[in-house]
Every structure is written in structure tokens, then in C-alpha cells.
């Protein structure tokens, strides 16, 4: 499924993407792409759409972490991506034993690979990738063949039945590193 928000309305308010709905004809869809205008007003739209799709996939328990990751990745793409459109990719990946959720965002920036930094305490920006490191199972960057990049992160899919363990086993990060290049 591809949802597109091409441009913000003239009034400057965020355009609303079509409301996500579960598709009864194909409830097992494993991937969603959301194209948004590279406008700060659409960061909230990206969070809402990701949350709605996770609920459709019965992964609502990942919504808060996925929305935070989405927000950080889309914010970076909007602020630094030098592009008119930002695309959010959401996919179920991993293995049956260790399923994962892949969240990826593409932009057209030829800039170098983003790296976490250590901002001064009074600075308002610069903590996005540090937050990503704390929340995601793993993350990475893939250069797109036609320019730009795709920044991705994975979340381990823990079911509410098993609760949240205090100590996580190592995540099969290879799922994100294997699936992300296909999205680029």
C-alpha cells in the first residue's frame, strides 16, 4: 500500500494523509510505503500513519517506540534531506522465531552517513540518533543507487503475552541490514 501526501495546503496546515484502514481483502500485507512532502507539518502525519498500520497488523504494543523512531527519522530527513518528498517504509521482517519491524526513511541528500553526536545540555537539537540507538534493536544507513540514502531501524516484535523482558537477547540485526537495501 502506498499512501501519498504531496504538498501542504496553502494555509500552511499539514495535509492529512488518507486514514489508514485495515484491508480485509489482504490482512497479511507485510509492507507499507508512505510518501510525504518534506515539511515539518508531516512529521505528525507519519507518526499517526505508522501507529494506525501497526494496529492493523496487531502490533499496537510497538506503536509508541515505532512512532518515536519514525518521528526522529522523518525529522532528520525533513531538516537535512534536501528533498521535496520523504518516504517512510514500514515492513514486517525477521524470522518466525524472531520477528522484527523495520522502519526506514528515504531522502535525496548526498550528505555523508549520519552519526550520533553529543550536543551540549542547552542545545535543543542533536539527540535524534542517540534516541534511535536507545530504542531500536539496531539501525543503519544504506546509500541509494540513484542518490540519497535510506536510514533504517528495527524493533524486535515482542508479543504482549510474553511481556517485556528486562534483558534482551541479541537481536538478529541482519534482518534490517538484509531488507533495507531492497527498499533503497
The total number of structural domains is 1
Classify the fold: give the CATH topology.
Heat Shock Protein 90
- Low-pLDDT segments, ≥5 res: 1-20, 162-172
Largest sheet: 6 strands, mixed
Order of helices and strands: EEHHEEHEEH
Name the shape in a single word. globular
The percent range for helix content is 25-40%
How many helix segments? 4
What portion of the residues fall into strands of 2 or more residues? 15-25%
| Rg of Cα set | 16 Å
CATH class: Alpha Beta
Which structural class best describes the helix and strand composition?
A: alpha+beta
Q: What is the number of E strands?
A: 6
Task: Explain the overall architecture.
InterPro entries: Anti-sigma-factor_SerPK (IPR050267), HATPase_C_sf (IPR036890), HATPase_dom (IPR003594). It comes from Streptomyces lunaelactis. It holds the Pfam family HATPase_c_2. The chain has helices at 43-56, 63-80, 128-135, 174-183; strands at 2-5, 31-37, 85-94, 99-107, 138-143, 149-156. The chain is of the alpha+beta class and 184 residues long. The protein has one domain (2-6, 29-114, 127-161, 168-183): Histidine kinase-like ATPase, C-terminal domain (Heat Shock Protein 90, 2-Layer Sandwich), CATH 3.30.565.10. A six-stranded mixed β-sheet has the order 1-2-3-4-6-5, sandwiched between helices. A hairpin with a 5-residue loop joins strand 5 and strand 6. The radius of gyration is 16 Å and the shape is globular.
